[in-house]
Amino acid sequence: AKKESGSSYSFFDKQMAMNSVSKLEMGNHLRQSMDRNELEIVYQPQIDCQLGKVIGVEALLRWNHTTKGYISPSEFIPIAEEMGFIVAIGEWVMRGACQQMKDWHNMLQEPLTVSVNLSVKQLNDERFVDKVIQILEETGLEAKYLEIEITENVAMRDDQLEALGRLRKLGIAISVDDFGTHYSSLSYLKRFPVTKIKLDQSFVRGVQTDDKDRAMIKAIISVAKSFQLQIIAEGVETEEQARFLVANGCSQIQGYYFFQPMSADQTQVTLQMSMQS
Ligand code: C2E
Ligand code: CA
Ligand code: CA
Ligand code: CA
């Protein structure tokens, strides 16, 4: 049992109270953010270095709060999950990203993919799979051009895995995000209907400085090969990192070295240029 002085207790309580007030406040603003047009989807291109071109984009959510300015998804997604808005927000992102990609297909005639981040909480919504089917029908995007990125940070229940299995059967690709950062990484490959591994940026960061990160990257690439999965590295910021990855068999790359996440308009210009070259 911990024995704390009265003052540290009250400090602790105050902190807790403040945290929950600002969380509630943020939650309430978040509830209105969709109606107020404060949410925006930005896109980060994914490159195949062997082919030398953009092969897809990841959709990333942005919240431009009227008074607080830009709020990071790492900050508001957990609140949206806790308060249950993630279901509505996630559906909004999915529809927007699919519609956008269908427009780009029509415009560019290129088989680009769009990756959408999924919170495991969205799989608790029993209508989730039907909603995805509906979105694909509404937008006209073929299932094979949609990829769902899921982080293996919580133990998934059987019904959640079953929903992922149904999505995979539709032809949707399923990518394990932040691969290698959670203890269950390997066993998930057995249980998941996975098509791709996303090599976490924490390993990429150590390419020039850390033997262990380099060993991790090589090990994860060989896991991908053994399981016949695609692999993409994220958070690639330097030429050295890109060279190391390609030399070791990971040719799909995403990161600031090539492109930052961009507005839909900017992404469109980038895609047009990439397809011309
Ligand atoms: P994530 O899915 O792992 O996304 C990668 C994050 O790394 C993104 O941050 C991206 O902007 C950033 N990034 C990309 N390239 C580089 C690079 O070269 N260097 C560095 N340092 N960072 C890079 P972002 O956009 O702030 O998103 C943070 C997290 O929020 C995401 O991590 C994802 O877990 C979550 N998120 C974003 N959008 C959504 C969404 O629509 N739904 C859900 N459920 N989660 C989302
Ligand atoms: Ca992701
Ligand atoms: Ca990631
Ligand atoms: Ca992450």
Automatic annotation (TrEMBL):
<feature type="domain" description="EAL">
    <location>
        <begin position="23"/>
        <end position="275"/>
    </location>
</feature>
<protein>
    <submittedName>
        <fullName>EAL domain-containing protein</fullName>
    </submittedName>
</protein>
